Amino acid sequence: MTPDAYCIHSTFEPSGPSEFQTDRHYLLYALKGTLRLEAQGKRWTLPPARAALIKSGCPIIITVLSKLTSASVLFSPDFIPTPERALTVFDMTPLARELIAECRIWGADSDPLTPYARQIFATLAEVTRQLSESPSRCVLPSPTSRELCKALTLTEAQSHHSLTFKEVAQDCGQSPRALSRRFAEEMGMTWSEALRRIRIIQAIEALAASNTSITEIALSVGYSSLSGFNAAFREVMDMTPSQYRASFTISDG
């Protein structure tokens, strides 16, 4: 019999998008590596500094961006209160990570949970519930029209270059005015704001995937100066790239 709560502690190689849905509440978390989560018309990057709390039955799409060590936790709907939102992405804390580290010894094939194990899982559920009350702001809305999908794909592919909105509009066969209206209506942001968000998301992936210097990462995602990159990163993430990298530099035991 599957325990009321258990941890998936496994290693996964990089892989393309795959759909996932479970009848349990799901804490999606990676000790090492980076994955991309897509759901409800939005997209997030999850390095070890962030996690997602997903309500049972909520369909998601997962892409493993780099070799990943998972420490995700699944809770029976009868074991913890139902999350208020279908899906929330949030920043982790040292306490939450330590609780997950302790949960790794109980897998899907484990014996029924001991009182100690039940308390650990229940405490983790409560800690992550509180963390989920402050969702991450680093999210990119997904476009709905074919024209904007093309524009966003072009922007992502060329984001590390000196790209202009006029060039993107021209390549998409749209007038700048029409394309600007689509960005506002479908994504709730301007093209410049979307470009900045794309670059920060790419920087987050790079910060999690390697020890490349922050200056090199800044240049690789399209910033011409470290100061400009630091300012943009802080505006989106409320911390510097150095602080963010330090927040997920932990051991996987």
From TrEMBL:
Domain named HTH araC/xylS-type: residues: 149-247
SMART domains listed in its UniProt record: HTH_ARAC (SM00342)
Domain of life, source organism: Bacteria
Gene3D superfamilies: Homeodomain-like
UniProt KW keywords: DNA-binding, Transcription, Transcription regulation
Pfam family, one: HTH_18
SUPFAM superfamilies associated with the record: Homeodomain-like, RmlC-like cupins
PANTHER family: HTH-TYPE TRANSCRIPTIONAL REGULATOR NIMR, TRANSCRIPTIONAL REGULATOR-RELATED
Protein name: AraC family transcriptional regulator
Organism of this sequence: Parasedimentitalea denitrificans
Origin organism lineage: Bacteria, Pseudomonadati, Pseudomonadota, Alphaproteobacteria, Rhodobacterales
